[in-house]
Structure formats: structure tokens, C-alpha cells
């Protein structure tokens, strides 16, 4: 599953291996970015029927792991911005308008 190193009594630092079934929930699937990353060219084995995963992927500008981290970081940043925007917007609409009194 992964490698764990116990540094301190309360702190356990664990790293997951990239080929672990825990990362894909045991479905033997792979990342979409593995084949469709920037500049990637997938080379499939044509002798096997219905091959989902390519044999070799070459010419990638970035590794798919890095692209996934950037992608998830952008999603987290957008989520935080949406939460902050929602809070600000709700405060604007919740304020009482005293100008009509």
C-alpha cells in the first residue's frame, strides 16, 4: 500500500506508491492526464484487442502527476474563491437597507 516512517510518537509520515491500488480504488484504471497530458504521444500495442492503457507515452512536457497536482490546486483555489465570494455576497444581501426609512 505505502511506506510509513515513524519520526515522532504522534507524527507518522506516510507516502503512497504510485502503483498502489489505493490511489485508484482497486479499479486498475489510470489517469486521463497520463495519455492526454501536454505534448504527450501515446503508443498503443496494436496486436492486443481492446487495449485501454498505452504501452509507452513519450514527449510529455510535464509528468502526469505534476499536471494532476496543478489541476487539483486550481480547483481548490477556485473553491476557496467561490466560498469567499458567497460569504461576501450573502453579507451584501443580508444588510438592512436603512435608506428607505
From TrEMBL:
The keyword Protease does not apply. Pfam families: NKAIN. It is found in: Cell membrane. GO terms for cellular component: plasma membrane. It comes from the Eukaryota. The keyword Chloroplast does not apply. GO terms for biological process: regulation of sodium ion transport. It is a multi-pass membrane protein. Keywords: Cell membrane, Membrane, Transmembrane, Transmembrane helix. Its main location: membrane. InterPro entries: Na/K-Atpase_Interacting. Belongs to the NKAIN family. This is Sodium/potassium-transporting ATPase subunit beta-1-interacting protein. The lineage of its organism: Eukaryota, Metazoa, Ecdysozoa, Arthropoda, Hexapoda.
